[in-house]
Amino acid sequence: MEHTRIDIRSLSVDKLKEQFALLKEPAFRAKQVYEWLWEKSCTDFDEMSNLSKPLREKLKELFVINNLNVHQSQFSADKTIKSTFKLYDSNIIEGVLIPAADRMTACVSSQVGCSLTCKFCATGYMERKRNLNPDEIYDQVVLIDRQAKQNYQAPLTNIVYMGMGEPLLNYANVLKSIERITAKDGLNMAAKRITVSTAGIAKMIRKLGDDEVRFNLALSLHAADDEKRNTIMPINEQNSLEALADALKYYYSKTRNPVTYEYIVFNDFNDSLRDAEQLAKFCRHIPCKVNIIEYNPISFADFQNAGTDRIDAFAEYLRRKGINTNIRRSRGKDIDAACGQLAVKN
Known about the structure:
The chain is α/β, with parallel strands linked by helices. The chain has 10 helices and 14 strands. It has a 10-stranded mixed sheet with strand order 3-4-5-6-9-10-11-12-13-14, covered by helices on one side. Helix 1 packs across helix 2, helix 4 crosses helix 5 and helix 6 packs parallel to helix 8 (241-255). The two termini are 35 Å apart.
């Protein structure tokens, strides 16, 4: 009976050293392999050229590298690239490269599907099949970085955890992936260039505070009124705005990190000046900024994007209240790569 091979990237460097000790190999060999895996993003034992051939063969017998592969990519007219990635178990996820004049941003997924049922988001209409492992999140960053270099001759500058899934429901793996992406013996990216976006799980926001994370936090707010938020984001029923405000204050007290509120403006739903006033009030809790996001209609839902005049008036109201407000024009709409449009079509 064939024994099950160990996923080598699930092992810490210390655990890897233990495995190598069992193989009667010196500890520095484990360090070399760890470097191949996380600094050089190597996914093939045969490419680990400073190891002997017999050792490489041994590694192939005992371990496996469950890397992702680009399944297909679509190019938008605005240069956004959306890719579907195939996982080792044949599940499919999506990630997006968003190029801009001054930055290259990777939007990565944290789950296969999503267990939250936000009414305006295509991913919310898929079932959640499983959490992604840290190395599967890391691989998306590596592959999207490669696309940026190949297509636009520039490396990734920013990462947003805004793809499929709710990152805070895959808390440990998301934090582990960020540790590998930011570590000196990993991809060595700055934590301040990483943003994790949540639909709002109060106790996990507190946990981010306890863990004193250094990356940025964004909250998908979309309504600063419990009744409205309940109708579009059922998670609000267990995580009211008051509970979120308390959690955010705690998070801020521990990290001193301002938070970004994401606010999609829906026509005749949350686009009035009264809505803007409620949002401004919510913004008083902690230092923050607001990203107003255009809605990208999806076939499952009958929401429409608010008109440009309404969006501009909304933003102007917040700015007059001293709130740092940006209007984010959507990218990649023509290939369903924009915010809220990620859903694997079988």
